[in-house]
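Progress report, Aim 2. The chain analyzed during this reporting quarter is listed below.
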Amino acid sequence: MSEQLSKKNYWKLSEFAKSIIEQDLEEYNKQISPNGTKWNRTDIYNIIFKHYRKDAISSICLDNSNDLTEKQREKVNSKLKEIIDKKYLYDEGIRQNYRFSSGTCVIMEENKNRLNLCSIRPGRYFRAVLEEYAHLPGSEREKILYKLMYNNLKEHLIKSFYKAKPVLIEVYSSNYNGELKRSRYLFYPYKILPDKKLMRNYVVGLSKTVGTDQAFSQYSLRLSNICSIKSAQKKTDTLSTDELKKKINDIDKKLKKVDVPFINSTFHDNLQVRFTETGLGLLRRVQYKRPPFDYLTEDDHICLFHCTEDELFNYITVFGGEAVLEDAYNDEGIRNLQKRLQAFYSKANEVYNSQK
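Predicted structure tokens for the chain:
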């Protein structure tokens, strides 16, 4: 069976599942590992199967099929076929070619008898797991793809629980914002949390860049940006138990106000924005990433946003000149955010002017 499964296979994956998995492949391939390797389509298919199959509904037949009576086996088989044929494989699908990895071949070999008992072909089982994966929220898919790192971080959090305080680790991370940027941090991990829209996962804690004299501050690091972690060796950069407790309490307080990706950004309860008529129309239509706000005037042209500076910046830049941040409270943080917006629009203006 292993020899046969290692050869090239053809199958049909639903258009929905194909688009989701290719979207994940494109996004996560930007987070290049320290050794510079990237995933291809076959890699991500096999990683999903390896990391998710035990939790997939499609694996219902594998754990106990040897102990089932004939009638029970028919019932399980019927249920599994319903899951595979109707719930997920709802369209004709797009023809794919792929190879089982050696690890996938081993898994299929180990479960060959169980699959045969339930009349499920290995390729069909493989496809069903991928279809299930595609219907999960983005945060769950990220945890599956980065399962080893996620479990490693959970082990450190368990150690922290037994020691009654976070354990200091050293984190090597990468970030892709047009260009690859790698960083090393000293990090006290506190929690692993998804954002409110269940798109991504973040490790929340206290952080400082390695080799600097900066103080530990609140920070959230995206799971898929983490390349490696290890226990920190330097003891001179540690915080006392009392310091840690206070800073962790501050994190809990801030998480009640802001979404986890923005915990290291300054929160304001009074970011005043004036909208044009066109801007008001956009405000009502563009709801993705829109922070909480209240209308301040009867004509709705002025709004007060309750969010961090980064949240407002990410949202308001969609509006161009149809929305203006006002410094109605003589606040230095708001003035700095205005300068940041000015720099953003000035750069865009320079780029367009250079095209003349």
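Residues 267-353 form one domain. Residues 342 and 348 are 10 Å apart (CA to CA). These observations will guide the mutagenesis work planned for the next reporting period.
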